[in-house]
Amino acid sequence: MQIEVVKSKIHRVKVTGADLNYIGSITIDEDLMDAANIIRGEKVQIVNNNNGERLETYAIPGPRKSGEITLNGAASRKVAVGDVLILICYGTMDIEKAKTFNPSLVFPNETNNLLT
């Protein structure tokens, strides 16, 4: 049996931008992506702690050490700059492997979204 489990999580980052005119996605500081084991184009679930919105899009890397978290396209309507988000990616694996799997959990500085 295959099940879906949390593979990667970036916990409590602040939105730094919202760009309605971009074609879609979420731009994430590439340092955060690397730390959380998230790759370019990977599906990301976004949980907005400020308004309860949940949505899915895909990740694109932003400049390193920038702390950038920008929602692009239609997703930009679901956030405001300064909102606190949780970003989650999932993986599918055998249930026995899932029992011992350790996800990549990242807890950046909540003021500037940088790794400490």
Structure commentary:
This protein has 116 residues and is mainly beta. Helix content is 9%, strand content 47%. It contains 2 helices and 8 strands. The chain has helices at residues 30-36, 95-98; strands at 2-14, 17-19, 25-29, 43-48, 54-62, 69-72, 84-94, 104-106. The chain has an 8-stranded mixed beta sheet. It starts with a strand and ends in a 10-residue tail after the last strand. Heterooctamer of four alpha and four beta subunits. This is Aspartate 1-decarboxylase. It catalyses: L-aspartate + H(+) = beta-alanine + CO2. Its cofactor is pyruvate.
Write a concise keyword list for the protein shown above.
single chain, 116 residues, mainly beta, Barwin-like endoglucanases, eight-stranded mixed sheet, 2 helices, 9% helix, 47% strand, pyruvate, decarboxylase, pantothenate biosynthesis
